[in-house]
Amino acid sequence: MKTPLSRLILRLLGLLALGSIFFYFFSTRELSVEIIIKRTLQKEKKITSYYTLLETDINLGSATQNYYVEVWFNSPHFHRVEISSSFPEEGYEPEQVFVSDGEKTWIYSPEIEDFYVLSPLAQNLNQPPFLLANFLSSFSEAQEAEIIGTEQRNGAPCYLLRIIPRSPGRRNAWEKVWLAKKSLLPVKIEIYDSCDQLQQTIVFHKTVINPEIHPDIFKI
Predict the structure, then answer these.
(1) Domain co-membership, 56 together with 132
(2) Looking at residue 187, what DSSP letter applies?
(3) Residue-number span of the structural domain to which 71 is assigned
(4) pTM above 0.85, yes or no
(5) What backbone phi and psi angles, to 5 degrees, belong to 147?
(6) Chain segment 17-64, per-residue pLDDT in tens
(7) Which residues contact 181 (CB under 8 A, 6 or more apart)?
(8) Beta carbons within 8 Å of 144's beta carbon, 6+ residues apart
(9) What percent of the chain has pLDDT over 70?
């Protein structure tokens, strides 16, 4: 015969099991692409600074060009982008640099081995490449977006998206995007041309959100 205490314990165990099932169902349920994009944009609004290290391979037809890119960003318009053909290490010299102090943007020219300031018109037409905001906003502005699967990248579960950009071109007809489920940040991007040939791969090796960045890094 069961005592009142044993019946209470059995009820508590039953409620605990029911709660576990409820939590498992809602924690593993896949989101729709519309909700993913909405949450990605919400994530972007909370980013006040970041550091990113990425690697990109560009298909040149007869060969592939490889670059490493470091990006520092402080809201609203401070950024520094350094591009190098070798892995960035202490003391290395990047081959191309974009720097903005919030008002003016400079570009390093290897030919003159110095920086020159862009005109306001050039700044609007030639935004620095590889800014995280550009990747995130491209999802919301996409002509078409769909989830084509899920996949593990470096041990982290990712949504696998197929994106047709707002203004597709011959060399950028559609993109395959690995988006981390937890952070909703891009982990890898593959860009394909209109013939479904891979034109560019971008791999995010490291992304740190809202770090403390010294303002001197945005000075020449």
Answers:
(1) yes
(2) E
(3) 33-218
(4) no
(5) -85, 125
(6) 444 443 333 333 567 888 888 888 888 888 999 999 999 999 998 889
(7) 150, 156, 157, 158, 159
(8) 162, 163, 164
(9) 82
| DSSP per residue, 37-80 | HHHHHHHHHT-SEEEEEEEEEEE-SSSEEEEEEEEEEETTTEEE
pLDDT digits (tens, 9 = 90+) for 178-217: 999 999 999 999 999 999 999 999 999 999 999 999 999 9
Q: Is 111 helix (H, G, I), strand (E, B) or coil?
A: coil
Distance CA 57, CA 188 (A): 12
Same domain, 103 and 16: no
C-beta separation of 151 from 161 below 8 A:
no
Total structural domains in the chain?
Answer: 2
* Cβ pair 90, 70 in contact under 8 A: no
- β-pair partners for 89: none
Contact call for residues 143 and 152 (beta carbons, < 8 A): no
Tokens coding 2 = 């069961």
- Whether the CB-CB separation of 32 and 15 falls below 8 Å is answered with no
| CA distances to 81, 126, 178 from 109, in Å | 14, 15, 33
